[in-house]
Design brief:
The protein has helices at residues 2-24, 70-78, 87-91, 96-121, 165-172, 238-250, 278-287, 302-307, 314-324, 337-346; strands spanning 30-40, 45-47, 57-67, 83-86, 127-138, 153-157, 160-161, 180-187, 190-197, 199-200, 207-208, 211-220, 225-227, 259-262, 265-266, 272-273, 292-296, 330-334. It has 348 residues and is an alpha+beta fold. The protein has two domains: 36-73 and 104-126 and 222-346, 2-Layer Sandwich (Ribosomal Protein S5, domain 2); 128-218, PDZ domain (Pdz3 Domain, Roll), CATH 2.30.42.10. Helix 4 packs parallel to helix 6 (238-250) and helix 7 (278-287) packs across helix 9. The N and C termini lie far apart (84 Å).
Length: 348
């Protein structure tokens, strides 16, 4: 009798352990988004080997993303500052590796554009170097689907140098469906080659490789500009990178001792663009003691507003989050990097 009870007890314990593992350890195809961190950019950006020495700080803000377990999924739903999203909502059809490559590309691009805009503002000369074209996505019907990867840089096609997207487009126009082409590309620091037949593109009905591409550019300037952001991805630090670089390049103290956080993409004309997760980023900024938070004051397309009347601008979302979570940080709307600079100069 004792032997049977021991077996039942051991089976019960094993069942409990398995249940705990299933609930708390085993990942499921959902992710929990929550307020992340605010990072002082003096730790990430330098110009000519020098870092920001002025009082206060410029800070980029992040959203923390964690793959969910059943337990964290439940807690995520219960915490109003968190959001639960599916793997497809976050990554689309990309694999985890491809998603990471995309985030790396967006971060590198935001740094390049921020560098260009900061140099323009400081009236410093530079040159844009075209290094080839990034692979952004690969169609499932492409004959290069299992040969190229998202994040690769194409540098030649049939031994012809490719610097810009238009170079590739012009060359492919001379080809027909089922023609074979040789692609030379860079992957993980190595130069590789692969061959494949062109397909009929569903959109144009013309010959194509079946991949989405974008120019891979770098800014060549006499200033030695370095970023150390290996652990951070995405495009949303563009505005804050620009402010940090402009201050470093010109030697101007814009902050007057204040801690300035913010978010927003940046384009080549200095326009600040919409980003995701601003409701969480403003919480991260407030927790770090930021005095000011710059939020994109983006314009909502009338058609989008018509279909979704409740949609808000980033600025409105940030203000709503600040009120809901009783934050003290001051939310400042900006449409361009010049708006942010003028605001800071006015407050000095």
């Amino acid at each position: 009798m004792k032997f049977k009870n021991d077996k039942r007890f051991k089976s019960f314990i094993v069942t409990i352990i398995v249940a705990i593992l299933l609930v708390t350890v085993i990942p499921i195809p959902y992710y929990v988004e929550k307020p992340g961190t605010s990072e002082n950019l003096r730790d990430y950006v330098s110009v000519d080997g020098k870092r920001d020495k002025f009082d206060g700080s410029f800070m980029l803000t992040t959203v923390a993303v964690q793959q969910a377990t059943i337990a964290s999924l439940i807690s995520g739903h219960l915490n109003h500052t968190n959001d639960v999203i599916s793997k497809k909502e976050m990554m689309g059809t990309n694999s985890g590796k491809e998603y990471e490559e995309m985030q790396h590309y967006h971060m590198e691009t935001s740094q390049n554009i921020a560098t260009k805009v900061a140099l323009d503002l400081a009236k410093k000369p530079y040159k844009v170097d075209y290094k080839g074209i990034y692979v952004m996505s690969i169609d499932e019907h492409s004959n290069f689907e299992n040969k190229l990867r998202v994040g690769d840089t194409i540098v030649k096609v049939d031994n012809q140098k490719i610097e810009r997207t238009e170079d590739l487009t012009k060359y492919i126009k001379t080809k027909k469906v089922d023609d074979s082409v040789k692609i030379t590309y860079e992957q993980d620091g190595k130069t590789k080659e692969t061959k494949g037949d062109l397909i009929k593109l569903p959109e144009t009905k013309k010959a194509g490789i079946g991949i989405t591409l974008v120019d891979h550019t770098e800014i060549d300037t006499k200033e030695e500009i370095n970023f150390s952001t290996e652990s951070i991805g995405g495009p949303s630090a563009g505005l804050m990178f620009t402010l940090e670089l402009y201050s470093l390049i010109t030697g101007k103290d814009l902050r007057n001792g204040q801690d300035i956080a913010g978010t927003g993409t940046i384009d080549s004309e200095g326009v600040v663009g919409r980003i995701g997760g601003i409701d969480k980023k403003v919480i991260a900024a407030d927790h770090e003691g930021a005095d000011i938070f710059f939020a994109p004051n983006d314009e909502i397309d009338p058609e989008i507003k018509k279909k979704n009347p409740d949609v808000k601008t980033n600025y409105e979302e940030a203000v709503e989050s600040a009120k809901k979570n009783h934050l003290e940080v001051k939310i400042v709307p900006v449409k361009t990097v010049n708006d942010a600079i003028k605001y800071l100069e006015k407050g000095k």
